[in-house]
Each structure stands twice: as structure tokens, then as C-alpha cells.
Amino acid sequence: MTTQTQNQDYAATLLRVTLGAIFLSHGLWKLLTLGLPTTVGFFESQGFPGWTAYLVVAGEIGGGALMILGVQTRAIALLMLPILFGALKVHLPNGFVFSYPNGGWEYPAFLIVASGVQALLGDGAYALGRLLPGNTRLATANS
Question: Which contiguous run of DSSP H or E holds residue 96?
């Protein structure tokens, strides 16, 4: 039987790994499928400085990987918010449903909320961040 704390740890882990995989896959898609020049061009066409594309790709890949591993999860979740608000700005004019042409704003809005929840919950179970010096929690959910 699991305790309420263990259930919360497992829920935080599931959210952390899922969000990390989403961020990582979006960053890799921009890098490997679109390519950086195309991504820079898209950012510029949306009114963002081209150089911000490099920060977004690095943030999505690095942040996604760290989140999956459970390293500095709260900070990463908060650091992803500017990227997500930028995506929300791009998709806002397209309507609510993400399946609308050019994607609506429901998906970025959901990711903003989910990242906020992750920042509140923290690492969850099985996080490498729990093994770092100064952390008093165990690496598993047995706390």
C-alpha cells in the first residue's frame, strides 16, 4: 500500500518525465527536422529576434533532458515558462483548439499550467536531483 506522499511523488515523476519528453522532442524537432536556419527564420517572422531561437532550442533540449533526469526540476519548470509564453503568443491568434490551422493556443496554455504544477510539486520519485549533496530526500519515493 502506498502513502499519500508516495502517490504525490509518483504523480510528480510522471508529470516530470512527460513534460521533459515533450520539451526535449520539441527542441530536437527544431534542431534536426526544421534546422536552425529555418527555426531562426520562423522566430523572426513572428517578431522575435532570430537569436532567441538558439536559446529556445538549447532550453528545450537541455531543460527537457534535465527534467527527465530529475535535476533542478522546479527551476527548469520555471525557466521553461518564458519559452511557453512565447509559444502562446504565436498561437493565440489561431483560436483555441490546437488542431486548427497553424495550431491554436490550448496546447501551449496547458503546458504553462503543467509546468507551474511541476514547479510546485518538485522532482517526485526516482530523480537524480535527490542524490545531489545537501538533499535530504532519498532517490526513490520511500520518503
Answer: none
Do 127 and 143 meet the contact criterion of CB atoms below 8 Å apart?
Answer: no
Residue 115 lies in a domain: yes
Which amino acid is present at 127? A
Number of structural domains (the chain) is 1
Give the integer Cα–Cα distance in Å for 72 and 106.
Answer: 27
Nearest CA-CA partner of 107 in 19, 11, 17: 19
Instruction: Provide the CA 3 distance to its chain's centre, in angstroms.
Output: 27
- In terms of residue numbers, what domain contains 95? 4-131
Output the pTM of the full model. 0.88
| Total Cβ atoms within 10 A of residue 70 | 24
pLDDT tens for 59-99 read 999 999 999 999 999 999 999 999 999 999 999 999 999 88
Q: How far is CA 22 from the centre of its chain?
A: 6
In a domain, 137, yes or no: no
Q: Is residue 82 part of a domain?
A: yes
C-alpha cell at 56: 529556445
